[in-house]
């Protein structure tokens, strides 16, 4: 999968610029705060319909403008396609081949990308929310069924939590089983798919980590909770757990069991990476997870995703930098850095210099 052309109109600090990318390594270079990451962010936005950096889409609109538009021409194994997004203060419209897409789930997966930046250390160092978000974004790019189940589960969870805040305990206890039946069905679909995905992710990330560290350290990933059996069996178990926690949930005012509470245990040499890993170890572990994600996307879709590396190489030592560039040499990569000559290790690339939201020729 290759992004051939990307056009940004009133997006972040860009007024109107068009990027032409090559099939291999593309370097966005320039001083800090010139717009390199903004360009990389736009590519990811067209893959997922969301940004990793902000909560509200209106923050993507250039100051003083009324809207932002992002479009891309993409080459895939199934042919060429165009993707687009128009963002205003109050709404967001997504387009596929010129036709408006009304559901985000139908927009996902037309272009796939893996994004890695220094902020991805949150995967290792922060709380469970970050790791669940990683799983949800990653699996949703390859499974619309998962994305649909996740959206429905989140709506049911919200309704159940609202019910738990009601003061009439009798009414709550009478109504909870109605929500629990639906909750358990979608929770089981999510849990089983995550279990399958995490099993493959763990194996591939362990291998990638060994490659990056020359076998000096061992990375392992595992769910913090096991869901055994098929969907029906898992749904039945979750339903029993929900019922057993009625009094606790009413007291807390929220649902205390389910996949929205799950986590990934990440260990380096058998020790919990969250409390043990140095910055360098955390960075390498997160990078190994992202490389594993690339391989899973390629296996599931039959083509490699676009890899986005935002200000990453300067944070790696020379041996790991060379290993990373060698590992990703067969796919399109969009890489941002301030000094290309210091990080490329002689790799061939197309360099695009950016200054103040403009391409400098």
What can you tell me about this protein's structure?
The chain has 361 residues and is an alpha/beta fold. It is built from twelve helices and 15 strands. The strands form three sheets. Strands 2-1-4-5-6-7 form a six-stranded antiparallel sheet. The longest helix is centred in the middle third of the chain and has 44 residues, at 169-212. It is globular, with a radius of gyration of 22 Å.
Topology:
Elements: E1 2-11, E2 14-20, E3 25-29, H1 36-48, E4 67-76, E5 79-88, E6 92-96, E7 99-101, H2 104-107, E8 113-116, H3 122-125, H4 128-142, H5 144-164, H6 169-212, E9 219-223, H7 231-244, H8 246-252, E10 264-268, E11 271-272, H9 273-276, H10 279-301, E12 306-310, H11 318-327, E13 333-337, H12 340-343, E14 350-355, E15 358-360
Parallel strand pairs: 3-13, 3-14, 8-12, 12-13
Antiparallel strand pairs: 1-2, 1-4, 4-5, 5-6, 6-7, 9-10, 10-11, 14-15
The CATH superfamily of the largest domain is RecF/RecN/SMC, N-terminal domain
Percent helix, as a range, is 40-55%
**Mean pLDDT metric:** 93
CATH class of the largest domain: Mainly Alpha
How far the N terminus sits from the C terminus, by CA atoms, comes to 26 Å
Strand-pairing-aware structural class: alpha/beta
Molecular shape: globular
Low-confidence stretches: none
What is the number of helices? Answer: 12
Main sheet makeup:
6 strands, antiparallel
Strand content: 15-25%
Read across the widest sheet, the strand sequence of neighbours is 2-1-4-5-6-7
CATH topology of the largest domain: Glutathione S-transferase Yfyf (Class Pi), Chain A, domain 2
Quickly count the domains. Answer: 2
Calculate Rg over CA atoms.
22 Å
**Helix and strand pattern:** EEEHEEEEHEHHHHEHHEEHHEHEHEE
Topology, number of strands: 15
CATH architecture of the largest domain: Up-down Bundle
């Amino acid at each position: 999968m290759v992004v051939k052309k990307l056009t940004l109109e009133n997006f972040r600090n860009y007024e109107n610029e068009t990027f032409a990318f090559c099939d291999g390594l593309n370097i966005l270079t320039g001083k800090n705060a010139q717009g390199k990451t903004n360009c990389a962010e736009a590519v990811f936005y067209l893959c997922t319909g969301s940004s990793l950096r902000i909560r509200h889409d209106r923050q993507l609109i250039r100051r003083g403008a009324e809207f932002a538009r992002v479009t891309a021409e993409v080459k895939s194994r199934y042919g060429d396609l165009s993707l687009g997004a128009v963002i205003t203060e109050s709404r967001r419209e997504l387009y596929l081949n010129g036709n408006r897409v009304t559901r985000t789930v139908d927009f996902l997966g037309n272009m796939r990308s893996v994004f890695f930046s220094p902020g991805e250390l949150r995967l290792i160092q922060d709380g469970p929310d970050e790791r669940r978000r990683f799983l949800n974004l990653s699996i949703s790019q390859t499974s619309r069924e998962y994305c649909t189940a996740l959206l429905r589960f989140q709506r049911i969870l919200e309704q159940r939590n609202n019910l738990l805040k009601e003061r009439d305990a009798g009414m709550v206890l009478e109504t909870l089983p109605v929500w629990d039946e639906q909750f358990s069905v979608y929770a089981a679909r999510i849990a089983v798919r995550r279990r399958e995905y995490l099993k493959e992710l763990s194996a591939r990330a362990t291998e990638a980590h060994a490659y990056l560290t020359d076998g000096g350290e061992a990375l392992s990933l595992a769910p913090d909770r096991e869901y055994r059996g098929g969907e029906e069996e898992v749904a039945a178990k979750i339903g029993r757990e929900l019922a057993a926690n009625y009094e606790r949930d009413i007291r807390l005012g929220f649902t205390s069991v389910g996949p929205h509470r799950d986590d990934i245990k990440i260990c380096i040499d058998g020790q919990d990476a969250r409390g043990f890993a140095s910055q360098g170890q955390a960075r390498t572990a997160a990078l190994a997870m992202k490389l594993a994600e690339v391989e899973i996307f390629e296996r599931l879709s039959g083509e490699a995703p676009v890899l986005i590396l935002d200000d990453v190489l300067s944070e790696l030592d020379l041996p790991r930098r060379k290993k990373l560039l060698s590992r990703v040499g067969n796919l399109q990569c969009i890489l941002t850095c301030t000094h290309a000559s210091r990080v490329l290790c002689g790799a061939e690339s197309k360099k695009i210099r950016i200054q103040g939201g403009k391409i400098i020729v």
